[in-house]
Amino acid sequence: MRTITLINGDGIGPEISDSVVKIIEASGLKIDWDIQTAGADVIDNEGVPLPDRVLESIKKNKIALKAPVTTPIGKGFRSVNVQLRKDLDLYANLRPCKNLPGVETRFKNVDLVVVRENTEDLYAGVEEQIDNDTAHSIKIITRKASERICRFAFDYAIKNNRHEVCVVTKANIMKLSDGLFLEVFREVAKEYSQINAREILVDNLCMQLVQDPTRFDVLVLPNLYGDIVSDLTAGLIGGLGVAQGANIGLDCAVFEPVHGSAPDIKGQNKANPTALLMSAIEMLKYIGEVAYAEKIEKALFKTLAEGFKTQDLGGNLSTTDFTAKIIENL
Ligand code: NAI
Q1: What ligand 1 atom has the least distance to the C-alpha of 312?
Q2: 315 CB near ligand 1 (under 6 Å)
Q3: Which residues face 116 on adjacent strands?
Q4: Measured between alpha carbons, how far is 26 from 162 in angstroms, rounded to an integer?
């Protein structure tokens, strides 16, 4: 039986994790979940929000499914999510974005993939208070990290029969940092002549995405733009409740939805488990359990197509009722 690390998270995390574990179990696939807690809830007992045991578990099992963990805004501890990605060198954040059956949206043929650099940029956490009225954040872009994420995007495009990779920067203004990312992209692109290489500035991208997202295929972006743009692309397919993601490194991979811990609906049995479930489906494909992944995906799509939805998608089902419908369709 395969052992997989499960981080239940906080906020809506435990509710959606519970749903996904039950659905996988109902599919007939046996997984030995190595449950690890992290975030504010463990600080009192363990002193830190991301104890070593969590990292050790993922290093040992190589694969984790992660529900969201709250990060205090403006003060408090550093993001568990950012730290996890950095400590495990999960350099590629992959966020596919495709219409789902039964989920009405403005655009019908959205099928694009956001490839976000996951380890540096303004998320490196290098900040300093200059004086009471001034603070600095340092944007770090390196050739090494830029090269491997651009290469990842092109390799992904080839493996998944995509035709284009578009690099997204603001290199007209940040000529050195974004300029380096763009320069490296151009060099890497030369090695992939079968894939079209395109360039766009991030502000223009946002405008074009909301006008017609079908103009885009694979996008590769530095960390901050990738974070923001992937929430925008989530909105194109029905919102954060359905947007899946994965953090991939050389040794380990952590699958997690795009959304956060949604404290506004915590404990109300309202959360949509689809984003975490879609992340888990990708995880199962990644570890070679393709038949089970497809079986679960089919049941999820059937449930949505039949009109059974949680409130974020305009439906009236609770998390547990939606979960029960998917299990019924399995
Ligand atoms: P959020 O993604 O948690 O919520 C934004 C809005 O989307 C809220 O109205 C929420 O109710 C809704 N939403 C999100 N997921 C949903 C779901 N599955 N079903 C139905 N509705 C859903 O973003 P917010 O409020 O900015 O962040 C809350 C916390 O989550 C913060 O502490 C943030 O740092 C953390 N966060 C954690 C992430 C992670 O663990 N990977 C990623 C993003 C944010």
Answers
A1: 20
A2: no
A3: 93, 221
A4: 33
What is the best residue among 66, 82, 261, 300 to mutate for testing ligand 1's pocket, by most ligand atoms within 8 Å of CB? 261
Q: What is the H or E stretch that residue 167 is in?
A: strand 164-169
Dump pLDDT digits (tens) for 215-253.
Answer: 999 999 999 999 999 999 999 999 999 999 999 999 999
Look up residue 310 and give its two tokens: 């949680």
Q: Which of 9, 24, 49 has its CA nearest to residue 283?
A: 24
CA angle at 284 for the pair 155 and 159, rounded to the nearest 5°: 15
**DSSP secondary structure string, 116-164?**
EE-S-BGGG--EEEEETTEEEE--B--HHHHHHHHHHHHHHHHHTT--E
Give CA–CA dist 90/246, Å, rounded. Answer: 9
Looking at residue 224, its amino acid is L
> How do 31-36 and 2-7 pair as beta strands?
parallel
Atom of ligand 1 nearest to the CA of 79: 34
Is the CB of residue 178 below 6 angstroms from any atom belonging to ligand 1? no
Tell whether pTM > 0.90.
Answer: yes
For ligand 1, whether the C-beta of 234 sits within 6 Å is: no
Whole-number Å distance between alpha carbons of 13 and 240: 14
Q: What's the CA gap between 130 and 174, in Å, rounded? A: 22
Pairing between strand 246-248 and 127-131? unpaired
Give mean pLDDT, residues 73-95.
89
Span from the CA of 260 to the centroid of ligand 1 (angstroms): 3
CB 319 within 8 A of CB 19: yes
Indicate the helix (H) or strand (E) that contains 40: helix 40-46
